[in-house]
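Design job #97: recover the sequence.
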């Protein structure tokens, strides 16, 4: 009878140990998955921010180039008008 009780106790202990091990493994896997997801989200956010910065920079550069071109054209027109009034009239089609 005692042997049977001992065997039952051992079996119960083994089952409890197995359950605990399984729970620990599940927790570890869950933590790893959560960490991976967080890292992926952070990487995506960083990439989006970089893309936005690049787009804004490109837009600013284009605006600056356009402004510079307009200023250069205005300066050229003013120089033409000052240097040669007749050419100035021709430029404006008068």
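Job complete. Output follows.
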């Amino acid at each position: 009878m005692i042997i049977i009780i001992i065997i039952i106790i051992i079996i119960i202990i083994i089952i409890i140990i197995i359950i605990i091990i399984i729970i620990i493994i599940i927790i570890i896997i869950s933590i790893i998955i959560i960490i991976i997801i967080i890292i992926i989200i952070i990487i995506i956010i960083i990439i989006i921010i970089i893309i936005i910065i690049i787009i804004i920079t490109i837009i600013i550069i284009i605006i600056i180039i356009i402004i510079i071109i307009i200023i250069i054209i205005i300066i050229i027109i003013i120089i033409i008008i000052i240097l040669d009034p007749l050419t100035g009239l021709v430029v404006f089609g008068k």
